[in-house]
Amino acid sequence: MKKVKTGIPGLDEILHGGIPERNVVLLSGGPGTGKTIFSQQFLWNGLQAGEPGIYVALEEHPVQVRQNMEQFGWDVKPFEEKGIFALVDAFTAGVGKSKEYEKYIVQDLTDVREFIDVLRQAISDIGAKRVVVDSVTTLYINKPAMARSTILQLKRVLAGTGCTSIFVSQISVGETGFGGPGVEHGVDGIIRLDLDEIDGELYRSLIVWKMRGTSHSMRRHPFDITSNGIFVHSDKILKNTGVEKLQGGE
Amino acid sequence: MKKVKTGIPGLDEILHGGIPERNVVLLSGGPGTGKTIFSQQFLWNGLQAGEPGIYVALEEHPVQVRQNMEQFGWDVKPFEEKGIFALVDAFTAGVGKSKEYEKYIVQDLTDVREFIDVLRQAISDIGAKRVVVDSVTTLYINKPAMARSTILQLKRVLAGTGCTSIFVSQISVGETGFGGPGVEHGVDGIIRLDLDEIDGELYRSLIVWKMRGTSHSMRRHPFDITSNGIFVHSDKILKNTGVEKLQGGE
Amino acid sequence: MKKVKTGIPGLDEILHGGIPERNVVLLSGGPGTGKTIFSQQFLWNGLQAGEPGIYVALEEHPVQVRQNMEQFGWDVKPFEEKGIFALVDAFTAGVGKSKEYEKYIVQDLTDVREFIDVLRQAISDIGAKRVVVDSVTTLYINKPAMARSTILQLKRVLAGTGCTSIFVSQISVGETGFGGPGVEHGVDGIIRLDLDEIDGELYRSLIVWKMRGTSHSMRRHPFDITSNGIFVHSDKILKNTGVEKLQGGE
Amino acid sequence: MKKVKTGIPGLDEILHGGIPERNVVLLSGGPGTGKTIFSQQFLWNGLQAGEPGIYVALEEHPVQVRQNMEQFGWDVKPFEEKGIFALVDAFTAGVGKSKEYEKYIVQDLTDVREFIDVLRQAISDIGAKRVVVDSVTTLYINKPAMARSTILQLKRVLAGTGCTSIFVSQISVGETGFGGPGVEHGVDGIIRLDLDEIDGELYRSLIVWKMRGTSHSMRRHPFDITSNGIFVHSDKILKNTGVEKLQGGE
Amino acid sequence: MKKVKTGIPGLDEILHGGIPERNVVLLSGGPGTGKTIFSQQFLWNGLQAGEPGIYVALEEHPVQVRQNMEQFGWDVKPFEEKGIFALVDAFTAGVGKSKEYEKYIVQDLTDVREFIDVLRQAISDIGAKRVVVDSVTTLYINKPAMARSTILQLKRVLAGTGCTSIFVSQISVGETGFGGPGVEHGVDGIIRLDLDEIDGELYRSLIVWKMRGTSHSMRRHPFDITSNGIFVHSDKILKNTGVEKLQGGE
Amino acid sequence: MKKVKTGIPGLDEILHGGIPERNVVLLSGGPGTGKTIFSQQFLWNGLQAGEPGIYVALEEHPVQVRQNMEQFGWDVKPFEEKGIFALVDAFTAGVGKSKEYEKYIVQDLTDVREFIDVLRQAISDIGAKRVVVDSVTTLYINKPAMARSTILQLKRVLAGTGCTSIFVSQISVGETGFGGPGVEHGVDGIIRLDLDEIDGELYRSLIVWKMRGTSHSMRRHPFDITSNGIFVHSDKILKNTGVEKLQGGE
């Protein structure tokens, strides 16, 4: 089975090579855990490796998304111009100037079919290999009973196109699980990002909860957010009392 | 009482010989615990022993199910052709190409009677001895008040046919119990699969909570998911602090 | 006050002689705790002592009930023929062949009055001294507000007939209490069966929470389920850390 | 302020003399904690001291109430005949033979005014000094929003008559508080009876939570239920680890 | 900023002089914590210092309120006659004899405007400097969504009149917070009274959670209820294990 | 990226220079934690540095707001006259004298568009660089499903104007998270203020949970409320057991 390298330092080691191709991975985390940075870094590294990618923006204005990425040194505009990166605007609903500048706009988020049609078009146009939906939570935040079927519909489309995908899932601080009943059972992989306070200090960590088609580290690894993005310590483990160095590698 | 060997390494020891024939066993677990692999391994081992089997797919496209099984070396297609394995497609609703390729299709999941009719036909056609429904949760996820009666209806049909069955039940991370009020009281056996984090490390384990018609291990056993499927350590126990070797056998 | 011997090894010691006559006892427990075996053993021992008994089956097909009892060596058919044991079928609703074979059938569980009429007839026919309703939970699972009044109606009827009764109550794993608000206050006695995991091992225990008309052990006693039914260790206590032998008797 | 002696061994010491006259005391406890025995003992001791009393039966048939009291040696029938004890039947609704034998019957519990009228009549007839309502919970079990106003109405009536009253309140196992939002703030005193399991053993204890018009013990005292009723250990305290003898008295 | 002395022994030390004038203070506590005594003592001490005061009775009959105060030696009748104390009857709704004896009666509690009009009239008549509303909980107990706006309306009126006020808030045993969502954010100060069981003993304590316009003790202080009212130990602290003497003052 | 100095002693060190320009920061805290003081101090320090600011008052009368600020020595009236500070009255709804004195009044809080129009006008009039909304909670307290979209609308407006903003969010005591589902994911930064009782003593602390565009301290820092406002101890950390001095700086 072919694996897609995330290119995030330390993460491919933890995934024993990368994310198996075509997998849909749920990336769950609370506020401030780095979900958006993680998913943008995944796309950027894909572009460096020649793999076209799509970022579906549901939380942030497309202009802001590009600026945020630039701050990490990830300037996507040249890639947009070359037609190997696309940004789907599911934030502005086409109100304001975005309809002049954005190529892919979802007008009405209450209609999942329109959302899927626009996404499908973008994938087809650029021949996308990587897709990020940030976040899927917005699609069902006010109708939790639809969460599972929305995820299943999206997964069916993406699986058919051959893309490897990340679905960002927003959870609340202190919430167990991965966001939305049934969602967690409908995906191929789950990575959870955490930001926990241990006796007055905040610690970042991630854990791979499941990943169809590969073995993976069964440990909770600390990570940092640097000016270059996320750096995962595959050689360390976050225990209840703090970070500990692994003896003899992961 | 005759027992059906699961063939899953270590599990038949824990069950003191296997699952008593005709039992309906609830297989409960959170995301990533290995429920689907467990139930497919149960069916595959049945085929090796000459016992026809049926897998009812509610979570995954039939094509994907066959591919997933193949990755563990369980190629069911020859058995489908010989008419001793059947896949019931309760996922696509007959949309797309599946209606050309799949023999058993449930069109409408809101109608339990249609579901039961299709299942009954498949059982009768191949003379099934083992049945897996993956998952029963999907049948009542949006109508929990129907969970118990749905389980009882299914059990009545399967008990009548002489099959030994596994009902996969999806639970959330951190959820106690086995999924759905009343469901746990309506089955003959309960096996729970767990994936727990203990101080920064993930551990897999299973526990047999009840099994009508046989004594069984009263311990929580660790297990691994390997490239050959599940391997249960019947000679080990998972304690609060980690895995421990049993003194003098189970 | 006359006491009815349960005949379950160890239990009558714990009850300081048995269940006071005419008491209605709530037998609460989670899945797999042995509620059904306990209540059938109570009836069987009554038959051995010449006391006619009735088992009201709400969870299981009457045919299955008889088979399950036979596995423990409790063959009730001769007693049914002699008219000193009766099985009330509140499971099949008279659908299928049961209406040919079963004498006492409740057609419609939504109507408690019909239920009570059938039960009253059976009690009168065989001169019952012991009655088991397995389970009362089914009577109000979808209408919890009716739980208390249903229990009170049943109790009024049974108290009038002079029977000593066991009401099986299903609770969920991890649920405190005895099942249903108000139910626990409407009965004469409460026995709770538990199945708890302590550091990777499952332990069975029971505790008598209340019993009108007698003193009783105030301890949690471990018990086993054997091929002869339940065996209670009246000389042992289950503590937080495991089983301990009592010094100098109960 | 005049105090009413409960006559329950140990309790008057804890209450520094007894219950202040005219107080309405909420007696809260889970199933099997001894609430009914406590309140009947309070009435019986009043009769011995020449104080007429009323027991309002909402949970049990009047015939059964008299039998239960007799088992503790409290035969109320002679006192009923002398017109210094009355039993208000709020259980049978006058169905069956009770309307021939019972003098005070509440026909319709959904109408609090009828309930109060009957109670007021009984109080006036016998010149009651003590009143027990067992239980107030039944009055509002299916309409919790009415709990507070029901209690306030009852309290207004009883305060006007000069009676000292006990309102039995049923709570669930593990429930904190005293039963029903707002009820606990509408009474003059609160006594809570508990039955707790500590490492495999059941312990009975009571604690006086508040009592207008008197100081009282601020400790949790163990008590026993004997064949003569309740016996409170005013010289002992129940701690988290078990019973301890007080040094130098309460 | 001028401060109003509560006159409650120990409390003004904790408040670093008293309650800043015009503050609205939420006095939260469970049943039996002494909220009513606290607030009546605050008014009585005001009368002794020549500051007219108003007690709004929502929980108790006005006659009973006067009697309860008298038991602590606080006879308000002479002050009522001199027109410097007023009791607003928001309890009887004018039913019974109260409409002959009470000057300020709120007929209909469902209408907050009437409540405010009567209160405003009483404040104006006696030139009140201190106001107690016992309890505000009653105003919104059956309509929690109105809690915040009710508090804000009351506060607006009282702030305009120059009164310093105490709003009694009833909370349940074990409830965190101060009673009603949003209420706690709409007041100038919060004092919480607690009654906690620590290993079999009850302890009374108070803590000032916030107080606009003054610094204050940041500790939990034990207090007693004596025959003269509340006595706060400003030189002691209640820790998890019991009371401890402060080294070198508060 | 340009940073806006808060001027709150110790806070800019913790933020590694200040709040990145244009960020919307959620300031979450329970009652009495100092949210309002914090946000007013932020505005006052802006005025001292020549940056026009706006305070949107939803919790307090505008007159009271000015008085409260004056108590800390922050007299905003001269700045209002110079047209570089504005107070938006979203409290009185224009009732009473406020419509004569206040320039910016929101009449109807149920209409978010009017709210935004008034705010936009004020920002434009004074050329605001800093905006405080105290509190956003009031905007959706009775319609939690609107919380997220309200925040997103406000953020869109403020981001367009170039302001750096603080949204005050009220949470309950003991509540985890930051107030309102989805709100925490819709902002650029989160600072949480806490007031916690540790063994009988209250401690104030703050923690920066996220801040887009800058690194920041990952520790919980204690702070004081003094007569000059908030003072954060950037060189100390609040641990479970109390305050500890950092070795070698933050």
UniProtKB/TrEMBL annotation, chains A, B, C, D, E, F:
Q: Which SUPFAM superfamilies does the protein's record reference?
A: P-loop containing nucleoside triphosphate hydrolases
Query: Which GO terms label this protein's molecular function in UniProt?
Result: ATP binding
Could you tell me which residue ranges the KaiC domain spans?
A: 2-250
Alphabetically list the UniProt keywords. Answer: ATP-binding, Nucleotide-binding
Is this entry keyworded ATP-binding? yes
Q: Which PROSITE patterns match?
A: KAIC
Q: Which residues bind ATP?
A: 29-36
Q: Does the UniProt entry include the keyword Coiled coil? A: no
A Pfam family hit? ATPase
InterPro entries assigned: KaiC-like_dom, KaiC_dom, P-loop_NTPase, UPF0273_KaiC-like
PANTHER family, per this entry?
UPF0273 PROTEIN TM_0370
**Family under the similarity heading:** Belongs to the UPF0273 family.
Read off the NCBIfam families from this record. Answer: thermo_KaiC_1
Identify this protein by name: UPF0273 protein Theth_1497
